[in-house]
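[agent] plan:
  1. take the single chain provided in the ticket
  2. run structure prediction with default settings
  3. attach structure tokens to the ticket
  4. add a short note for the reviewer (M.T.)
[agent] executing step 1
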Amino acid sequence: MTTGRCHLTDDNGTVASVTDHILITGLRVVSVIGVLEHERQAAQPLRVDIDIHVDLKDAGRSDDLSQTVHYGEVSMQIAEVARTTSDLLLERLAQRMADVVLQFPGVLGVELTLTKLRPPIPEDVESSAVRILRLRTT
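[agent] step 2 finished; step 3 output follows
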């Protein structure tokens, strides 16, 4: 997860700098995911870590939930995506999840790490993961 400054450039070349983040760490979800036949027979445990890039200045001044991103709502929607989709690749499910986060008003970008907790590979591996960074384009 990044904790530094996020530089965003719009279509006109204007650069905005965001240092505020909402972090959701260790969200446990289950999803039918994987390429191998035995992976597709039952939902597997996954961990999601989300770093939401957002300007929190107004919420910090007003103490008003409507001025920020409701992390409980984000968590519920991410869990719903995991439960109701059946993708082959972690990359695809991570993209679906990032798209959900970017739909929330005020979100400028999202860094999302999706971890398969028990990957079915012959070596002794605790987990495998993908990390993606997506920025709002409009």
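[agent] step 4 note for reviewer: Strands lie at 6-9, 15-18, 21-33, 44-54, 86-87, 107-116, 128-135.
[agent] ticket updated
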